[in-house]
Amino acid sequence: MAYVQKLFDSNFMEYASYVIKDRAIPNIEDGFKPVQRRILHSLFEMDDGKFHKVANVVGHCMKYHPHGDASIYSALVVLANKDLFIEKQGNFGNIYTGDPASAARYIECRLLPLAKKVLYFPEITDYDDSYDGRNREPLIFPAKIPVVLIQGTEGIAVGMSTRILPHNFVEVLEALKAALKGEKMTLYPDFPTGGIIDVADYQDGMGKVLVRAKLDTSDPKRIVVRELPFGTTSDTLIASVENAARKGKLKIGSISDYTAENVEIEIKLARGVHTQEVLDALYAFTDCETSISVNSLVIIDNKPVLVPISKIIEFHAGFIIKVLKAELKIEEGRLRDKIHARTLERIFIEERIYKRIEDKKTQSGVMKAVHTGLEPFQDEIRREVTDEDVERLLKIPIRRISLYDIEKARRELQELDARLKEVRANLKDLTGYALGFLDRLIEDHGSVYPRLSTIKSFEKVDVREAAQRDLDLRYDPDTGYLGYGIKTGKVMFQVSPYDRVLVIRKNGSYSVIDVPERLFVDKGMLCCVLAEKERLAKLVFTVLYVDKATRYAYIKRCRIEQYILNKGYTLIPEDALGIKLTTQKEKVGVQVSYKPKPRMKILEETFPLEDFVVKGVKAGGVRLAAKEVRSAKFVRQSTGGNGKSGLQSKKAASKKRTGSKD
């Protein structure tokens, strides 16, 4: 058993690590998942400037991807619809309606110039064997921009997930420039479907955002959806509106979808209903408003790490310096090699060193003659002349020597020298060079990526406030059932499905519950009120009860302001009975009849409610009198000409009752 457990743990960890690193979570350096990286690598290899059938790209990518072609096709469609690195031709689906793309054999794609500018540089790219060992694939592209922030990403792995929202291309590059300068800039999402965003709780990519559809409300009898919240389509939004209408949460006449290249969903309102009356309901009960939680998880050094958006920008500020330095170093080496080769060629031809080999009959003699001829010009050459250099000179054809243009060669050398100086200057000021590179990207491609989403602060609509109170809440004392789904009994008030009610039963127990469709509460329910905080804060509950042992009457006045939903509470002690309750406050008294006994003169008294202090719900009641009670009830008080209650006893009028606690 221990062996099996160990085997299971080991295999599970290997599987989990594979899914996290090689399938679901993107790498922070280039922002791609492995399948996306393999697709772009295939397009780089196939690139000839023309469109390629997606089916051919998928087939080529199968050399690198150890899974099925369906996953490659779907990943390519998603990547192409980002409109960042892949140019599309044909039907790649519709992000507004959710319509799928055509089959891979009918659509075509090719790389956009931006992909080559920011991703492609094989000399500094690390490669590894593909899954079958027959090919080499890139481990990470040397990306010069934070692709993971521009494109956004979603992925579910074993025990973890990632969701990074897309951001505006220009804003991301501006934030990267600010980081290079040591400044800070706050980034907010930008969605391809547009919409309105509330970023108050974005928390640097670790919180959530509220997203709303952009609604045209200029017509009082019609609402037109012009932009969709991110993550929804016209079909899902229409379905949510129809579902809310069926449940009676909003009233519409009809809904039509005219979405094609732009979003246009027309909602015609019912007779007697106007635009402003249904806006809150649309936001509360439909996909016109959604909440998107964000979880910025990426792979750093082969480990999944939660990283705020600002830290990703800081990472790429250092990474772009590293990549550009490596590129400049390689270019510097190439320029030095070119200058060396062109200098040798110029001296070889201008000084007619090739004449020295005419009388040589051996290979070694030829090589020595050329070396000897180049020795006087060592200061110009600047580098040791190798046998490989001589071999290259000896391969120059006679035609080229005869047509050699000295002035053209000198100009070319001057251009190479100038470029070498420029490269070395850039190496000394890598930050300035990086800023210039980003400025050129913004200038060349920024106009293609305008901000589509509007950032605006708005309050999330409370569904309880937006819901229509059009359900009759009934109570049937004969059956003891309460709810909006019963047809018998008395209508207490109108409610919505999101309301809560406070129910007080005859035995003194009470609880706050969601409005039920049909629920047995008690055949002797005393009170049922809407459990709204403002309403409960104003209500004073006056309770009459009798102690079982002494038969003395007690009164308790309290407010019920705090509660836990569906939890049971009690207003009176366990050894009490005969509860009566009222929520009236003015001109109400308690009329108590006592059990007759010898020498008892007063058999009935009335106590005004205002004589008793309102206490906490957990406090005990106040004893009315040390006499056995025969009956007690609430009565209306009449006011005499002297301003005092006509039913008020002398004892009750003399002082306020404080009594003893139960």
From TrEMBL:
<feature type="domain" description="Topo IIA-type catalytic">
    <location>
        <begin position="25"/>
        <end position="440"/>
    </location>
</feature>
<keyword id="KW-0799">Topoisomerase</keyword>
<dbReference type="GO" id="GO:0009330">
    <property type="term" value="C:DNA topoisomerase type II (double strand cut, ATP-hydrolyzing) complex"/>
</dbReference>
<dbReference type="Pfam" id="PF00521">
    <property type="entry name" value="DNA_topoisoIV"/>
</dbReference>
<dbReference type="InterPro" id="IPR050220">
    <property type="entry name" value="Type_II_DNA_Topoisomerases"/>
</dbReference>
<protein>
    <submittedName>
        <fullName>DNA topoisomerase IV</fullName>
    </submittedName>
</protein>
<feature type="region of interest" description="Disordered">
    <location>
        <begin position="635"/>
        <end position="662"/>
    </location>
</feature>
<keyword id="KW-0175">Coiled coil</keyword>
<comment type="similarity">
    <text>Belongs to the type II topoisomerase GyrA/ParC subunit family.</text>
</comment>
<dbReference type="InterPro" id="IPR013760">
    <property type="entry name" value="Topo_IIA-like_dom_sf"/>
</dbReference>
<dbReference type="InterPro" id="IPR002205">
    <property type="entry name" value="Topo_IIA_dom_A"/>
</dbReference>
<keyword id="KW-0238">DNA-binding</keyword>
<dbReference type="InterPro" id="IPR013758">
    <property type="entry name" value="Topo_IIA_A/C_ab"/>
</dbReference>
<feature type="coiled-coil region">
    <location>
        <begin position="406"/>
        <end position="433"/>
    </location>
</feature>
<dbReference type="GO" id="GO:0003677">
    <property type="term" value="F:DNA binding"/>
</dbReference>
<feature type="compositionally biased region" description="Basic residues">
    <location>
        <begin position="652"/>
        <end position="662"/>
    </location>
</feature>
<dbReference type="GO" id="GO:0005524">
    <property type="term" value="F:ATP binding"/>
</dbReference>
<dbReference type="GO" id="GO:0003918">
    <property type="term" value="F:DNA topoisomerase type II (double strand cut, ATP-hydrolyzing) activity"/>
</dbReference>
<keyword id="KW-0413">Isomerase</keyword>
<dbReference type="GO" id="GO:0006265">
    <property type="term" value="P:DNA topological change"/>
</dbReference>
<dbReference type="GO" id="GO:0005737">
    <property type="term" value="C:cytoplasm"/>
</dbReference>
<dbReference type="InterPro" id="IPR013757">
    <property type="entry name" value="Topo_IIA_A_a_sf"/>
</dbReference>
<feature type="active site" description="O-(5'-phospho-DNA)-tyrosine intermediate">
    <location>
        <position position="106"/>
    </location>
</feature>
